[in-house]
């Protein structure tokens, strides 16, 4: 009986994950107006079973948000605590695997509203954690205002993706979206690595001058 219960629990978990993954793909491709029947068809289940596992379409959306954030958190933390060229090249080789996640994020931010704002704040909070881990690992320089730096980097990251995919619209074709994502990554990879590792200005005179007028950096404000 115990073994049967464990197998049933594993099957429940597998079905829930299959539904969630199908929803991430469907929401990313068609937007959050996509219906439960379409998601169920993708996952090979009924709309009623989706309600059984997630309670509502809103519950499914929250589960998708949590899953996408966890995938991003894990990938980013590995990137900033490793810092090796081999690790970076391995992630670039597998960039197409992240296409459903990136598509989902784009849909969320393009949709705007409270859910998009909440997603952005969760991403920023996660980024604070993994940037701090990078500092502790000696890979990332400390900041006078770590939370403000994190928010700036997050806005830059989100903004650059939004610009790219606005200029290269998603036509709903999975393969073309994945190819566009690879083109985006390959376009920004070198300048991003160069900028993050070498900096932009040849010296720190601009910072020193700025600090003469603003001796302390703006306080970190989580409500920004």
From TrEMBL:
Residues 35-54 bind DNA. The lineage of its organism: Bacteria, Bacillati, Actinomycetota, Actinomycetes, Kitasatosporales. One of its GO terms (molecular function) is DNA-binding transcription factor activity. It holds the Pfam family TetR_N. Keywords: DNA-binding. The keyword Ligase does not apply. This is TetR/AcrR family transcriptional regulator. Transmembrane segments: none annotated.
